[in-house]
Amino acid sequence: MASALIRSILASVALVVLASLVVGCTAPAETGPVTTITPVVTVSVPATTVTLVPTASPNSAQFAGAKMLNVLSVAKNWDADADTDGIAIYPALVNEDNVMISWQGEVLPVDIEIYTTRMDENQGYKFVKDKVVYTGRGYLTHWEQAQMLYGKGKGIPVAFEEMSVPNGVRYGETLATVHLPDGRTFAGKGLATPLTP
Known about the structure:
This protein has one helix spanning 2-24, and strands at residues 68-76, 86-94, 108-120, 126-140, 156-159, 171-179, 185-194. It is mainly beta. It folds into 2 domains: 1-52, no CATH class; 58-194, Sandwich (Immunoglobulin-like).
């Protein structure tokens, strides 16, 4: 039924587009005065609600054990000189025992926000988020990409030049949100994120 409704809506849209093209046409100047045609187009759409429900992929079962997200951000050098070029963000999905879960065959979107931090005396002198210096999206293609240990994962790179860091600020905080194929999201914070080389 939903596909018939979609076909009906598309046919109605096509009629509206065709009618607007006809109205927009004018005769060449040498044939005489231009006559304006005002068409009346009535589009009738049945009162049906279509709800799109995300369906889990066949690989979703491998994420069943995910309970939280650990985030680590470290300075990285990815060219030939000795200077660090940016940071690599490692958002690792872990189970209830804080053990990283392994997965493959999916591409997971990761929303990334990086902030400066400030000490808030009203909250017991804790560091709190201050100014946004970067927002973007990265992708994880395999669980080992988020594994910093043993040099297996490359993480999600963010160059220092992509950040808008105020002068004198060296460290901040990373907030990463991973979107799973089954519709769940997991967010985690990485503290002491390097913001400058």
